[in-house]
Specification:
Strand order of the largest sheet of chain A: 2-1-3-5-4
Radius of gyration of chain A: 26 Å
Distance between the termini of chain B: 61 Å
Strand order of the largest sheet of chain B: 3-2-1-4-8-6-9
Order of helices and strands of chain A: HHHHHHHHHHHHHHHHHHEHEHEHEE
Number of strands of chain B: 10
Structural class of chain B: alpha/beta
Number of strands of chain A: 5
Strand content of chain A: 5-15%
Largest sheet of chain B: 7 strands, mixed
Helix content of chain B: 40-55%
Number of helices of chain A: 21
Shape of chain A: globular
Distance between the termini of chain A: 79 Å
Largest sheet of chain A: 5 strands, mixed
Strand content of chain B: 5-15%
Order of helices and strands of chain B: HHEHEHEHEEHEEHEHHEEHHHHHHHHH
Oligomer: heterodimer
């Protein structure tokens, strides 16, 4: 199905003489400086919701981590590794984020090796440049989550799988099994990587070109069954976790509700990969110029040099296959399409983009790379500095405001309940923090469902006890409007503040008036 | 100068790209998924615009499916040279058709024919120059005497080139007839590679590619060759697997009996070779296409010559679609009907290009849109489709089908529409020989429709931005307009010597400075 690469020489002929252009290196270095600055600034940004949950989980005991993570519908490797990192280096936010930066840095040479081996040195330089400069990867390189580890492990998986295809050695098999097992323990979506590799393996064996010594059918199936054997070992390594999760029972329902994605979301996914998180206006404008991609395709493939990429189908499948599968599942079963879940497709995406860019003629290449560098500068700045980014969660600002404003006779009600983590991380005040619906996260089990009757009872109790209620609203799970309507109709809204897109505090005056009725 | 039998001349290779069956099926699936989007009628806004685009996309998908059909067996059933083990050298009448071409070009052609590794032939110059009113008609007779070949000068121009050949058929008698254009010089191995296929008594003709030796001379010759290279590469190779390769007017050896059964070279159509092939296939004859360059000629060297050539081919092919539709022709196999239909439909592309170019202008100027949903929905279906096509073309053409060639193809929309309209209206079009030497002059008038589009596009963009601001709809439609403009640019550039203009301006400035 794919042509085999020459073992010693690069098969991709390029015309872009990247090496000799020192001006280009200056521009690249400048952009790298911008990226490094963005990373440093991100290290000190407000903790995000997912990070707060991750930190909370990783500060538990080992079994506590496993229990929490299983109910959080995740896999435990990152949480466990973070646990030990915290033990050694402490819980300072920037220090914890450096743990993710470490995997991001490690993935750079890994991607370079992969691009060099299956492309060329020019392609390797371009792909790692795109990777380093990607605002999306900058964002997740500084998030206390498993995504940079997932990306790193995925690159290793590509290397071990392709090596396995080429030379069926015991060492290769062991490496593949090891990396695949680590991948599965890093994120459930790594299973899609394994699934795509299985698909590619089966297709490449069955569609093998006929040679003078063609493989009979039964031998082909033998090869496939041997591969299944490897996957069985991987499955066996992952089985203990599955059993443990099953034994724990239902999930804790501590994840935001996702909407069924539209075609816009799919295009936005790619845009996120390339430009990071931008304001709605910028996103809409960039997505609107999608027809110009066709010109780029014509310029790439309309060049008088054949683009010969070994394992083209594999890289294409690993980039677009997971996205297509996730979109299909999201439309037909349950919404699961999120850019961060699919971050593992970015190495092969940038590899393919690098192949295209290296194939352009000289003038077009320099125009495109110029646009990439200038664009990166702009997008990194926007992502870091702009307040209109939906992904920015200023829980730090919320907590600081509450620490200053809420008194001991006030109550803070956080909705949706799982957003209590980042608030508690920063909150230094005296007011009690509660959730709507009320949820004791120290007790195993899922968050209770919202009902209007429970809300009424809860607010009723607050009336007897507190003077003001600060309601923190974020991550609407379908009942935010119900809460706002009820509160606005039954209490006096005194203040409303927005801290970042979708994150708001509303201050209400309760029925109890301390001045007229100090005794309660 | 006769070359040694064992001397191998270095020749360019015809495109031999192919595609795996897996990729073919993937592309087919993508095309069908894309096509299904157009049946979601709930996203229609303006029904007229949508209908036009819908028709356009039916055309695109049909052409794509036909293309996959054509190339589906490449690499698996390519004709391999089946050299006859017998010593088979039948008598061949070699016709070189001339109608006013430069004598030195004809001299080179005749010399090349005489230098081929084949003796049992009679060479004739079919001299239509007198009938065409050319003043130098006697020069061909002198040339024939000089080179000791025959010369058949016609006094009556009936049937143009076809009539010229039919006239010569009556005056000659060999079992086989080889036909060359005035500029098509066969390589020494032309006959020894082509003739062996004729040992099969069912083979009616053997066709080989037209290669342009001057392909690197300028943009026009390069684009013309890239288009030809793709046609004589994957397309004709694919048609050959369905026994549907057709005569291309030159570089062909035809069995006399085949021509006689089919009524000779057809004189009624301007694409006489194409229609003749159809009649031959109707009679059940086999055709052979050799995917090897066995002769070389000249590409049109200026845009006007290119335009005339394309217009003739377009008119001829479209005429067959309307007046000799292969779908209804008895005697053709299903595969042959599909292949002939594909060739005739190709030149209807101009209408579709016009529709696709005008629709975004309609939005920018008049706020009329074919759909009311976000174009991101369309993008999800369209981008995989167009990517698969462009990538596959790149694979199959081995990188030879360039942006330039595609640009010239798309930019030929105007002449293709002309061809369709004149065919529908029944306007007669005279056969005109493609000039073999570059014509001088300004051919900017050939790009007037394209320039008009550029100006309208610019105006409409400015107007839409003024009216609506930079909304996503304005940006997307502007992108489409820019896409069309970029496609037309190589053609516009080729229509006029822009550099000459700038140099002239500089020269004029210098003169002014000196005089001041």
């Amino acid at each position: 199905m794919d042509t085999q690469p020459s073992p010693t020489t690069s098969v991709i002929k390029t015309t872009a003489n990247f090496q000799k252009k020192t001006d280009l290196w200056w521009l690249f270095s400048l952009n790298l400086g911008v990226t490094a600055t963005a990373i440093v600034l991100n290290l000190f940004a407000s903790i995000r919701l997912d990070e707060a949950q991750q930190v909370w989980a990783s500060t538990k005991s080992f079994i506590g981590i496993l229990k929490y993570i299983s109910q959080d519908v995740h896999v435990p490797l990152y949480a466990v590794l973070l646990h030990f990192w915290i033990q050694i280096f402490g819980t300072d936010l920037a220090i914890m984020r450096l743990f993710s930066v470490l995997f991001f840095v490690l993935s750079i040479p890994a991607l370079y090796i992969m691009s060099r081996k299956y492309g060329s040195s020019n392609i390797a330089k371009i792909s790692t440049s795109l990777y380093c400069l990607s605002p999306f990867l900058t964002w997740y390189s500084t998030e206390i989550r498993m995504y940079s580890l997932l990306t790193f492990v995925t690159i290793l998986s590509h290397l071990t799988f392709l090596k396995l295809l080429k030379s069926n050695t015991t060492e290769g098999k062991l490496l593949y099994v090891l990396v695949s097992s680590i991948g599965l323990y890093t994120h459930y979506f790594f299973g899609i990587v394994v699934l795509m590799q299985l698909t590619y393996f089966i297709l490449s064996v069955l569609i093998q070109k006929k040679t003078t010594a063609s493989t009979p059918a039964f031998k082909k199936w033998k090869i496939i069954m041997r591969y299944f054997g490897l996957l069985t070992v991987v499955g066996a390594a992952f089985a203990p976790w599955i059993i443990f999760v099953y034994a724990q029972g239902q999930s804790a329902n501590t994840k935001p509700m996702l909407e069924t994605p539209t075609s816009y979301n799919i295009l936005l996914l790619f845009l996120n990969f390339l430009t990071g998180f931008q304001s709605v206006n910028i996103q809409n404008s960039i997505i609107s110029i999608w027809p110009l991609i066709v010109i780029l395709l014509f310029l790439t493939f309309g060049k008088k040099t054949k683009l010969n990429l070994p394992y083209a189908t594999y890289f294409f499948l690993m980039t677009f296959g997971p996205i297509a599968l996730t979109a299909l599942i999201s439309y037909n079963v349950r919404p699961i399409l999120l850019s961060r879940y699919l971050i593992f497709t970015t190495p092969t995406l940038f590899f393919l983009l690098a192949v295209i860019m290296a194939h352009l003629n000289r003038s077009v290449f320099f125009a495109v790379i110029g646009i990439v560098f200038v664009g990166n500068f702009f997008f990194q700045y926007q992502q870091t500095a702009s307040d209109h980014i939906a992904e920015k969660e200023n829980y730090k600002g919320v907590a600081e405001y509450l620490s200053r404003s809420a008194e001991s006779f006030d109550v803070i009600a956080v909705t949706v309940p799982f957003t209590v983590y980042p608030i508690e991380y920063y909150y230094k005040g005296k007011a009690k923090i509660d959730t709507i619906p009320q949820w004791n996260r120290y007790v195993s089990g899922s968050i209770p469902a919202f009902t209007a009757e429970d809300l009424e009872k809860q607010i009723g109790k607050y009336h007897q006890t507190y003077r003001h209620m600060y309601v923190v609203l974020s991550y609407d799970q379908g009942y935010e409007d119900d809460i706002k309507t009820y509160l606005d109709n039954n209490m006096e809204l005194q203040e409303k503040r927005n801290f970042s897109p979708g994150l708001q505090i509303r201050k209400y005056r309760m029925a109890r008036d301390y001045e007229s009725n100090p005794g309660g | 100068m006769k070359l040694d039998t064992h001397e191998v001349q270095k020749k360019p290779q015809i495109i031999s790209g192919k595609m795996t069956r897996f990729l073919l099926y993937v592309n087919l699936l993508i095309a069908l998924i894309y096509f299904s989007w157009w049946f979601g009628f709930d996203h229609i806004d303006n029904p007229w615009l949508y209908s036009l685009l819908f028709i356009g996309e039916i055309y695109h998908v049909v052409m794509v499916l036909m293309f996959w059909f054509t190339i589906r067996r490449l690499g698996r059933t390519d004709i391999a040279a089946t050299a006859s083990k017998q010593y088979y050298k039948p008598e061949i009448d070699v016709f070189v058709t001339v109608a006013g071409e430069p004598v030195d070009i004809v001299r080179t052609t005749i010399s090349a024919i005489k230098n081929t590794f084949y003796e049992n032939m009679h060479v004739y110059i079919l001299n239509d120059s007198f009938a065409a009113g050319k003043p130098n008609w006697r020069e061909y007779e002198s040339l024939a005497k000089e080179l000791q070949v025959g010369c058949i000068t016609r006094t009556d121009s009936t049937g143009a080139k076809a009539g010229n050949i039919n006239h010569a058929l009556q005056m000659t008698g060999s079992e086989f007839v080889a036909i060359f254009d005035a500029d098509m010089q066969p390589f020494p191995d032309f006959f020894i590679k082509s003739v062996p296929f004729l040992t099969d008594s069912k083979v009616g003709f053997v066709q080989s590619p037209q290669y342009y030796a001057n392909h690197s001379k300028n943009t026009v010759t390069a684009a013309a060759w890239e288009q030809q290279g793709f046609f004589f590469g994957p397309i004709m190779r694919g048609k050959n697997t369905s026994n549907a390769a057709f005569i291309c007017g030159t570089n062909v050896i035809v069995r006399r009996k085949t021509l006689q059964e089919s009524g000779g070279i057809n004189e009624k159509s301007i694409a006489e070779d194409f229609l003749t092939s159809l009649y031959i296939h109707q009679k059940g004859w086999k055709s052979v296409y050799i995917p090897e360059i066995l002769a070389q000629g000249l590409a049109p060297e200026d845009l006007l010559s290119y335009y005339k050539q394309q217009l003739r081919w377009a008119r001829g092919s479209v005429e067959i679609l309307f007046r000799h539709n292969p779908i209804f022709k008895n005697g053709l196999t299903i595969n042959q009907r599909i292949e002939y239909l594909a060739s005739t439909l190709y030149y209807c592309n101009g209408i579709i290009v016009l529709i696709d170019s005008v629709v975004p202008i309609m939005f920018l100027l008049f706020n009329l849109s074919p759909i009311h949903t976000a174009t991101s929905t369309f993008a999800i279906f369209f981008l995989p489709f167009i990517t698969s096509i462009i990538y596959s073309l790149h694979l199959i053409s081995q990188g030879e089908l360039t942006f330039r060639a595609i640009s010239f193809t798309q930019s030929s929309w105007y002449l293709q529409i002309q061809a369709v309209l004149s065919s529908i209206l029944g306007k007669k079009m005279e056969f005109s020989v493609t000039p073999k030497k570059a014509q001088t002059g300004n051919f900017l008038f050939l790009a007037y429709p394209h320039l008009a589009y550029v100006f309208i596009a610019l105006f409409s963009i400015v107007y839409a931005v003024y009216r609506d601001g930079l909304t996503p709809a304005v940006i997307t439609n502007t992108s489409w307009v820019l896409f069309n403009v970029v496609l037309f640019i190589p053609y516009i550039i080729a229509s006029y010597s822009w550099l000459h203009t700038f140099k002239n301006i500089e020269s004029t400035k210098n003169i002014i400075n000196v005089t001041n």
